[in-house]
């Protein structure tokens, strides 16, 4: 979609910036690639595509471009059918409220997070639980083409639960005991050892 094609969006709509135009173009490219036959059935020519892009641009203007892209990726990960504008709006609202990162971004965060994992400040606890379910050692010691599908499966399952209202508990952090044993007195240790030797006739 070119900038000059947006002038038909209506006088009440704020002029879109380059980031928003790029986001809409990326979203439609994602849908075209993932819903190929459905996409061409819904948009049979370039005019139909540009008309839809202008409508989506106007209707999604309250969302930031990155949030729009996050909503689109959530859709292609969880829906088999080409989304309507209403579905897209709902996806953006859900992502906005829940703060769930996109699957691949979550995977990279899980791989790069330092230990102890329970103490790390996660973008969302779903990332932590997906990483734990995938096994931290497995994630860090396997190539992405092997590890990411496993992580993604766990992450999507956990995200689905979060979207249904499940609250993820904060991970328990292991703490050191408040009191540590005092060091053993060397003289007492020698006396005990000598007594033990005499008892055992060593």
Give a quick precis of the structure:
With 202 residues, this protein is mainly alpha-helical. It folds into two domains: 3-98, no CATH class; 103-163, no CATH class.
Describe the structure.
- The chain has 202 residues and is mainly alpha-helical.
- The protein has two domains: 3-98, no CATH class; 103-163, no CATH class.
- The protein is built from ten helices and no strands.
- The chain has helices at residues 18-34, 36-42, 46-59, 65-78, 85-98, 103-112, 125-134, 136-140, 144-163, 186-199.
- Helix 1 (18-34) crosses helix 3, helix 1 (18-34) runs parallel beside helix 4 and helix 6 packs across helix 9.
- Mean pLDDT is 83; it is low at 6-12.
Given the structure, what is the number of helices?
10
Please trace the helix and strand order, writing H or E for each element.
HHHHHHHHHH
Q: Helix proportion of residues, in percent?
A: 55-70%
Tell me the strand percentage band. under 5%
Distance between the termini: 91 Å
Strands, total number: 0
Assembly of the depicted chains: single chain
Overall body shape? elongated
